[in-house]
Write a structure and sequence with these properties.
By secondary structure, this protein is α+β, with helices and mostly antiparallel strands. The chain has one domain: 60s Ribosomal Protein L30, Chain: A, CATH 3.30.1330.40. Helices cover 25% and strands 29% of the residues. It has two helices and six strands. The strands form two sheets. Strands 3-6-4-5 form a four-stranded mixed sheet. It has a two-stranded antiparallel sheet with strand order 1-2. Helix 2 links the parallel strand 4 and strand 5. It is globular, with a radius of gyration of 15 Å.
Length: 133
């Protein structure tokens, strides 16, 4: 089982959202999950940012469970968004859902990047995860 320590070291500013600055991991195995978008197993893209956000994280959970892992194994997230206007919606999603996903109240580091577009024009968010198992 992985030994995961997520923390915010002294000397760094308080995180601007639900994430931490550092994850220290001792693990025998890592799980690298490709960026997940707001499309279901049939390829249908959810309508609107909020629905795509829900679907992207649901897809990550499916990938985690496929390896016998869960949200507590996640050590890093990367989030790619098309519109900066969706940042408040993303933060609201995290405020609402992360306490359920990360029940210990410790959130893994997350890098948030604004990009020109994703692989398909209607896609608004993509989230990539790394887990230690």
């Amino acid at each position: 089982m992985a030994d995961i320590r997520i923390y915010n070291p002294e000397g760094l500013a308080k995180p601007l959202g639900q994430y931490s600055h550092v994850t220290r991991v001792k693990a025998s195995e890592y799980l690298f999950i490709a960026g997940q978008v707001g499309a279901d197993a049939s390829g249908k893209i959810a309508e609107g940012f909020d629905a795509q956000c829900v679907q992207a994280f649901a897809n990550i959970e499916i990938a985690l469970r496929s390896a016998g892992a869960g949200w507590g194994n996640v050590v890093q997230l990367y989030t790619f968004m098309v519109h900066s206007q969706d940042i408040p919606r993303f933060m609201a999603y995290r405020l609402r859902e992360f306490p359920r996903m990360f029940s210990n109240g410790i959130y893994p580091p997350n890098t948030l990047l604004m990009i020109d577009r994703l692989v398909q024009e209607p896609l608004l968010i993509e989230v990539q995860a790394t887990a230690a198992i």
